[in-house]
């Protein structure tokens, strides 16, 4: 990121490209997160967090428009973002309790998903009127 920050006006012209890019990143990161959790799966609260995030994301994809873009104005995306952020403390504590490479991979996938939430929020704020 440059020192001057991001010129958000530049995103508006390529909004569809950027949201598609972020959608793909979230798709891939959530797949990794769920895969690692399926191998670990030893904490019911974290399991519920992962399941909720995967389900909300699936609902967003199921409601995508004819061009494959997820809805960004119905509140469901904000619910996904909130779900990811609400799980932070549990995932961080889980990493502190475990010392395996698999635990590290899982918690890194969780952090990456949360990181993408910042991008999703930016895209909500920059959504063109026709999206």
Structural class of the helix and strand makeup? Answer: mainly alpha
Query: How does the major sheet shape up?
Result: none
**Rg from Cα:** 16 Å
Count of individual beta strands: 0
- Strand proportion: under 5%
Helix content: over 70%
Number of helices: 6
Give the topology string: H per helix, E per strand. Answer: HHHHHH
- Low-confidence runs: none
Would you write up a description of this structure?
The structure is a single chain. This protein is mainly alpha-helical and 131 residues long. The protein has 6 helices and no strands. The chain has helices at residues 9-13, 15-40, 44-62, 76-86, 88-97, 101-125. The chain is elongated and about 45 Å long.
Structure summarized in a few sentences:
This protein is mainly alpha-helical.
Features:
0% strand; 6 helices; mainly alpha; 131 residues
Furnish the topology, listing elements before pairings:
Elements: H1 9-13, H2 15-40, H3 44-62, H4 76-86, H5 88-97, H6 101-125
Helix pairs in contact: 2-3, 2-6, 3-4, 4-6, 5-6
């Amino acid at each position: 990121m440059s020192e001057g920050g991001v010129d958000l006006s530049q995103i508006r012209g390529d909004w569809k490209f950027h949201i598609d890019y972020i959608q793909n990143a979230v798709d891939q990161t959530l797949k990794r997160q769920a895969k690692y959790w399926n191998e670990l799966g030893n904490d019911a609260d974290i399991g519920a967090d992962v399941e909720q995030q995967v389900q909300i994301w699936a609902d967003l994809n199921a409601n995508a428009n004819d061009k494959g873009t997820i809805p960004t104005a119905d509140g469901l995306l904000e619910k996904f973002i909130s779900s990811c952020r609400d799980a932070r403390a549990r995932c961080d504590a889980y990493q502190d309790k475990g010392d395996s490479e698999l635990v590290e991979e899982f918690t890194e996938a969780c952090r990456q998903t949360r990181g993408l939430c910042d991008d999703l929020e930016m895209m909500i704020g920059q959504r063109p009127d026709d999206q």
